[in-house]
UniProtKB/TrEMBL annotation:
PANTHER family: N-ACETYLTRANSFERASE, UPF0039 PROTEIN C11D3.02C
Domain of life: Bacteria
The keyword Transferase belongs to this UniProt entry's keyword annotation: yes
Protein name from the UniProt record: GNAT family N-acetyltransferase
N-acetyltransferase domain location: 1-164
Keywords for this protein: Acyltransferase, Transferase
Species: Brevundimonas subvibrioides
InterPro entries assigned: Acyl_CoA_acyltransferase, GNAT_dom
Gene Ontology MF term list: acyltransferase activity, transferring groups other than amino-acyl groups
Length: 182
């Protein structure tokens, strides 16, 4: 089941993300953020009207996903970047797909125009790249050796989903980016 995240989910979210910071290459953070920091990030996302979802399996927390502004300058106000994290024990059962599909639906409903996935490319990123391709994202570029983590360089594979590839002018106002990003 996919639902809106609430502040009560933040301890589980912080724990899952912290494990990924310490053991994985999906994020380029090196120190796990505190619960207070994750609370600030959650509130910043929600303050912009962007989605933060939680997945549950039989009532148990199984993962989360959220959309954050793609870039801070206002012309970028129609794009978001997606972040998705699934509990290791729940992977391979469609949770990531359900979370990303929910983000796509919400972004479309908000009148946004594209979703970006910036995926660190390493031996363990095939699941993430596969997930994004499965939901229609295209590979649009690649940064070479821009991350240094676990004593090795990491590339970043950029992926993009266009929600209206015709390029007609947007009808919605986009994300309010005044004041910059937190
Ligand atoms: C990437 C991640 C979110 C995928 O979540 P998941 O719940 O395991 O993925 P799903 O079971 O929903 O799989 C959806 C699709 O992704 C692809 N996929 C999933 N695991 C895969 C793997 N190990 N290898 C290749 N493709 C894979 C498949 O196309 C799959 O579709 P299919 O089942 O119809 O073949 C999860 O592995 C994860 O949290 N990884 C660590 C954090 C991370 O990398 N996050 C993404 C960066 S923001």
């Amino acid at each position: 089941m996919i639902r809106e995240a609430t502040p009560d989910d933040l301890p589980a979210i912080t724990a899952l993300y912290g494990r990924e910071v310490l053991t994985g290459t999906a994020t380029f953070e090196l120190e796990p953020p505190s619960l207070a920091e994750m609370t600030d990030r959650f509130e910043a996302v929600r303050a912009r009207g962007l989605p933060w979802f939680v997945a549950e399996i039989d009532g148990a927390f199984a993962g989360y996903a959220y959309a954050s502004p793609f870039r801070p300058r206002p012309a970028y106000r129609y794009g978001v970047e997606g972040s998705i994290y699934v509990e290791e024990t729940a992977r391979g059962h469609g949770v990531g797909r359900a979370l990303l599909a929910a983000l796509i639906d919400r972004a479309r409903a908000l009148g946004l125009r594209h979703i970006i996935g910036a995926i660190s490319d390493s031996a363990t990123s095939q699941a993430s790249i596969g997930l994004h391709e499965r939901l229609g994202f295209s590979r649009v570029g690649r940064y070479h050796q821009v991350g240094w983590k676990f004593d090795r360089w990491l590339d970043v594979q950029l992926m993009q989903l266009d929600l209206d590839p015709t390029g007609v002018p947007p009808k919605a106002p986009g994300i309010d980016l005044t004041g910059g990003l937190a």
